[in-house]
Here is the input.
Amino acid sequence: MSNVLITGVAGLLGSRMAEWILDNTEYSVIGIDNLQGGYLENIDSRVKFYKRDLAENSIEDIFKKYPIDYVFHFAAYAAEGLSPFIRKFNWKNNALSTAEVINCCITYNVKRLVYTSSMSVYGDGVRNERFYETNIPDPQDPYAISKYACEMDIISASKTHNLDYCIIRPHNVYGINQNIWDRYRNVLGIWMLQRLNNKPMTIYGDGEQMRAFSYIDDCLRPMWLAATKEQASKQIINLGGIKEYTINEAANILLEIIGDYTIEHLEPRYEVKYAVPSWEKSVDILEYNETVDLKKGLYNMWEWAKKQPHREQQIWKEYEIDKNLYSYWKN
Here is the structure.
């Protein structure tokens, strides 16, 4: 039987991708996750699951046990704004874990590695201008720098070891199975948890930051094509995000769904102002099609969020450095 391996299988991308593959293909799925940012309940019971930390443990035994055709490397800690205060953790969880995956893909002749990078590699954009895959990356924080470094390492492995790959730069993917309990990432999930706990919805700065959002269900088949379609070989592709919103606009759309609620503007944090992707390549190669707009997607996610068990919000008890740490993250 043919197998696919998914890292980060307990998170949003990994859990939903595993389910899609099992429902729509003849492949079996092996899943890896350290459960730091994902939840066991998200993992489909049909997945052969291994609890591993890629930065701490070898996964070569899994490749020896199962013939693996495709690898989807989703595992990462994507708290971009937090990364200047947890540099070592950031590099360990993003770069070291990717090196382990690359080594195994080369050694065991994986047909293609699909790596989810980040739109953050582009850096700060200009209002009314989109990021294209041909842009020269200009990452602005440790998270973005580490993701770009992983891209470069994968491309290097392709040149020296003929590793086939497709690098995906997704754009604020959201939906069912998102971690809404992490205070440092996933703004839509942060707002939902705040509402569930009767706390004000918070926005950093003036809220005029520009972003694009992609509903998870619209991304699943395109990600499969990233692994299996010939035209996706050795490509870098922005995925999704065909319409941009200011953070204020996104908040107001959510308010239409959850009802009138208080919004609190906090001190600004260091982040890029405009981050809007191009999407044409994902349509042309990966057949991306936005069938769920932001309002419908937020409605679906909110209905799911209301049914979730109570979980404590994930909070860092100690940062690597706290100099210039924002007041709202101080413990």
